[in-house]
Amino acid sequence: MATNRAPPSEQEIKGRIITHMNTQHSRELSHYLRHYVGLSARAATASPAIQDMSLTGMAIKTLNGTYDVPFSPPLSSWAEARPRVIAMDVTAREALGISDIYLTEYAWPRGFDWVPLGGVVFYYICCVGLPWVVPGSGIWDTLEVVFPGGPEWFLWIVRTIFWIVFGIHVVEVFLLDRWRLQKHGVPRFSRVWWAWTSNIFFEGVTTWNRLDSIIAAKRAEKEGKKH
């Protein structure tokens, strides 16, 4: 004989919501802390987890403390919890300039990407090797034969453009972090962050194209799932 199962209690519903948010949506919790509490990105991503929750708000704990994030207006029932936390995340992401497409992987250079990468790496090797470019050395003799203008011109070029090359690539690291990596949820100094920033420092502009193609593919895949 079938028995009627009692509906879950409010405490059980709250427990399920907390467990789901803590296990599946820690990224969203960090968004709440950044937007509604004003924490820095580093502080907000320090293992955020809901410690307690009520119809009036959430208490989110991190390694640095516990912070109250209110529901405004308060929930009238737990049935409103899911659409509310989704809406709060949309509001937080828009205010923070964070996309709903997250970059979680690194992609190696491909095809033509290796050309600028090889060129910049070769240039830095030339910079490191300057102390060995002296009259009478094998490098000096080789440059007299193969390099237009000879070793003197080689030394002048390498030394003159160093700060230009270095400065351009440092700026590209800064802009990639600000315009792409932070926007697409890559934590600073994470493994993925180091991979992309190191890459653009040596490769340059083609890094943008490769990263944007990944983002575009993720966007297309997400839009396809909606239909």
UniProtKB/TrEMBL annotation:
Protein name listed in UniProt: DUF2470 domain-containing protein
Superkingdom of this protein's organism: Eukaryota
DUF2470 domain: residues covered: 15-88
Keyword set includes Repressor: no
PANTHER family, sorted: MEMBRANE PROTEIN, PUTATIVE (AFU_ORTHOLOGUE AFUA_1G04315)-RELATED
Transmembrane segments: 114-133, 153-176
The entry's keywords: Membrane, Transmembrane, Transmembrane helix
Species per Swiss-Prot/TrEMBL record: Hypocrea virens (strain Gv29-8 / FGSC 10586) (Gliocladium virens)
InterPro entries from the UniProt entry: DUF2470, Haem_oxidase_HugZ-like_sf
Keyword set includes Transmembrane: yes
